[in-house]
Amino acid sequence: MARADLRRLRHRRLLESRWILWITTPVLLLLLLGAWKLYTVVSGVSALTVPPPEAVGRALFELMGRSMLYEAAYYTFYSTVMGFLIAVVVGVGLGIVLGKLHLLEKVSAPFLVATQVVPKVAIVPLVLLWFGFGIASKIFMAAVISFFVVMQNTILGIRSIDPGHRDLMKVIQAPWWKRVISLDIPSSLPFVLTGIELGVVFAITGAIVGEFLGGDDGLGALAVVMLAGLRTDQLFATVIVMTLMGFVLYAVVSAIRRFAIPWHESSGRVTSL
After folding, report:
1. Closest CA to 99 of 164, 192, 22
2. Which of 191, 181, 166 is closest to 95 using CA atoms?
3. Is the pTM of this model over 0.85?
4. CA–CA separation, 199 and 196 (whole Å)
5. 175: alpha, beta or left? (left if phi > 0; alpha if psi -120 to 50)
6. For residue 71, what pLDDT is reported?
7. Do 210 and 137 meet the contact criterion of CB atoms below 8 Å apart?
8. Closest CA to 239 of 27, 66, 56
9. Which of 71, 90, 98, 150 could make a disulfide contact with 195, Cβ separation 3.0–4.6 Å?
10. Residues whose CB falls within 8 Å of the CB of residue 200, separated by 6 or more in sequence, listed in order
11. Which of 174, 176, 252, 211 is nearest to 73 (CA)?
């Protein structure tokens, strides 16, 4: 009887945790909008610097009626996804190799770290010189910014495999493909998916940075146009669209991660008594 009560309690807590976001998110959003509106009224700040939320809402509604917003959003979305996919393929592949070959990882570590410590804004002129002002430079920026976190988490996943489990596979003389399917993939997948989940956030950042600094397409370029025209309300609206796109991409990858490893605690689908 006690076990049944505990099971019901666990189920109730799980339902509450799923519904809590539907309550807290709108409340926090309303508080943020209220604080924003209060600041614009009390401080007397110019609308060219910080427009009130209702002006941004009207600008967003106006932009949604123009095709240029959808064209810019598609351009950013495409360059982000393509760069992200390249980062996943390169990052996971390189991470597996470096995770298994410790010496190679130590030798290549300074060069790999160098690709990240160099400010990305500093290499944009070179990227534009190599790839031009088209979409290729944006894809490259998205890939180069996001691949490192994917690679590092893949290396961590490979290194985190329990040595005792490896020894067991050797004792039972399991073939290499059996070790990969039964041990390597399940053990490292949570780490790899975490890197991929973080990588998509970096990817959209890289794509938009590339659009800010070179080119005439994408949400980043649209934001530059709004800034040059002192249309601050539409600039805020464009930033909101960028944010929503980032949320959608992150939610998709997070959902894939959640359902790919339902047995792992990090997925949020495993509960304990």
Report:
1. 192
2. 191
3. no
4. 5
5. beta
6. 92
7. yes
8. 56
9. 150
10. 80, 84, 146, 249, 250, 253
11. 211
Tell me the residue type at 133.
F
CB 143 within 8 A of CB 83: yes
Per residue in 38-72, pLDDT (tens digit) is 988 888 788 888 888 998 999 999 888 888 889 99
CB 206 within 8 A of CB 146: yes
Determine the Cα angle at 53 with ends 211 and 57, to 5°: 65
Q: How far is CA 177 from its chain centroid?
A: 31
Location of structure tokens 């990240």: 116
Q: Could you tell me if 186 and 75 are in contact, meaning their C-beta atoms sit under 8 angstroms apart?
A: no
Neighbours of 71 (CB within 10 A): 13
User: To which residue do tokens 């489990």 refer?
Assistant: 165
What are 96's two structure tokens? 């597996």
